[in-house]
Amino acid sequence: ALEDGWIRAGLGVAPLHLGLGLLAGGVRLGVLPSLSRFARPLLRVAGWFDALGNDAGAMHVRVTMRDGHARTATREAVLVAENGDGPQVPAAPAAVVVKKLLGLPGYAPLEKRGAFPCVGVLTREEILGELKDFAVRWIPPRK
32-56 as b/e, with b when 16 or more CB fall inside 10 Å? Predict the structure, then answer.
């Protein structure tokens, strides 16, 4: 059973990361309204910092599991996206599900319809296969 898990990703330019963190904190505390209506101006401000960053990003994932004998095991892995291909990553699982629902060749058909738990619907290999044409790589878990 999953005992604990975390995912870490962030903006590569420290002032943007810090600024967005402060704004998000203000929203959580109720001092600021939702930032969604400020998306365009914030994107414009982020563009001013483009020269300080690069086109690569990463996501670090760590999970701690506990088995039926109360033994725990922790695994960590990293997904790296380069050449500006990071925005492809969150879309890949949805693309695989749609292809399964449509029964496209090369995709195991998804017979279930409606709302149901997504556990077991996709594999890491299917998601990475969807990203094969992009500069995205998986660094396997450390034990």
Answer: eeeeeeeeeeeeeebeeeeeeeeee
